[in-house]
Give the backbone structure.
Amino acid sequence: MRIAVCPGSFDPVTKGHLDIVTRASKLFDRVIVLVVINAAKTPSFSPEERVQMIREVIGGSLPNVEVDTFSGLLADYVRDVGAVAIVKGLRAVSDFEYEFQMALANKKLNPTSDTVFLTTASQNMYLSSSLVKQIAQFGGDISDFLPSQIVDRVASRLCKKE
Ligand code: PNS
């Protein structure tokens, strides 16, 4: 049983995340999408809401994927569940330095797992949760960026226009 963890803030989950999780589910026997609670960030959605949105989006379509939340060191979680890999999406060269640093630190903290980078699909190259949130705040159309199940919820939470 080869387990992988897909960690992130998922505030909210985007089509880019969904693409990476879907592809990871084909490479590994079991995939845990991990909503990591970062005390330094002020999220728009609670961890429970983020988990619920991911579960709603995945539905029954990916039977080997589950969703969890965690606060602490990713390397500890990965060791505790016996995962062999941390799966991350790489969008552009600008992601690389930060991701490379995290991959090395995670390897140092838990040598039994590796970080696997999947190249983002070209249509998602520029996509990020924070970009989607900015567009939503000003009433822009976010339907191309988010899974259809959560578009209305995200728009109504974030839109400041009356
Ligand atoms: O979606 P994000 O915000 O880019 O995800 C970043 C995340 C959650 C993967 C990263 O911040 C993380 O792993 N946090 C857990 C704390 C930790 O282990 N930090 C050291 C990483 S080397």
Observations:
- Residues 88 and 117 are 5 Å apart (CA to CA).
- DSSP finds six helices and five strands in the chain.
- The mean pLDDT is 95.
